[in-house]
TrEMBL record:
GO terms for molecular function: ABC-type amino acid transporter activity; ATP binding; ATP hydrolysis activity. It is a peripheral membrane protein. Residues 2-236 form the ABC transporter domain. It is found in: Cell inner membrane. InterPro entries: AAA+_ATPase, ABC_ATPase_HisP-typ, ABC_transporter-like_ATP-bd, ABC_transporter-like_CS, MetN_ABC_transporter-like, P-loop_NTPase. The lineage of its organism: Bacteria, Pseudomonadati, Pseudomonadota, Gammaproteobacteria, Oceanospirillales. Its main location: membrane. SMART domains: AAA. The keyword DNA-binding does not apply. The keyword ATP-binding applies. Pfam families: ABC_tran (PF00005). One of its GO terms (cellular component) is plasma membrane. This is Amino acid ABC transporter ATP-binding protein.
Amino acid sequence: MIELKGLNKWYGDFHVLRDINLSVRKGERIVICGPSGSGKSTMIRCINHLEEHQEGDIVVNGMPLTQDIKQIEAIRRNVGMVFQHFNLFPHLTVLENCCLAPIWVQKRPRKEAEAEAMQYLERVRIADQAHKFPGQLSGGQQQRVAIARSLCLSPEVMLFDEPTSALDPEMIKEVLDVMVELANEGMTMLCVTHEMGFAKTVADRVIFMDQGQIIEENAPEPFFNNPQSERTQLFLSQIL
Ligand code: ADP
Ligand code: MG
């Protein structure tokens, strides 16, 4: 579903991603962790070309990522993304946020787009808030709306970039519960998160990044119980 081969990226002189190789099968759930500044966000943002890479190949669902805007758009249609700071449109209601891309990008009839959006809002248990504005919701509710909004485009892959790290502790669980359900339904997921309970419950593989490199990757059990690299051990000792 996702293939990164020999991926290198620089911000000016700064070598932010160093020879990243990663392949993700359909239905696989990958958790990415690592210190702040290690390149986690940059790596997942390269997958839907929110960031440009300079060397290496990215293939998503069989489509190579090239400079061709048509190809980039095709990949973006397959890839949903949820950010740390929800990024909802404040002047649109919850339902309007969800329907914007289906109506204007996918050219779906409004009625149909709204009916489907309501189904996804129900799945994230927030359908009763459909006519409110984002500012009237809690952080946890807004993040669930952001997840529903992504799902409205029927992505094949979901990328999550620290979706719970801006939330108050009591709201983290409601967002993680929705993510666990998505995982159980077989969604291919790449999640940058430091929620190690989530990683243990749903991840097929945990990846540790440091200084732009993948240092270690393993199934959760050996990853947490028997980390190989000193850097992984140090990181885990700091967060667990
Ligand atoms: P992480 O998500 O692991 O915290 P990031 O991918 O956000 O790491 O950032 C990796 C490194 O790249 C950091 O040192 C950060 O300061 C730098 N960086 C991120 N975005 C930019 C940018 N747009 N321009 C220059 N440097 C950047
Ligand atoms: Mg980040």
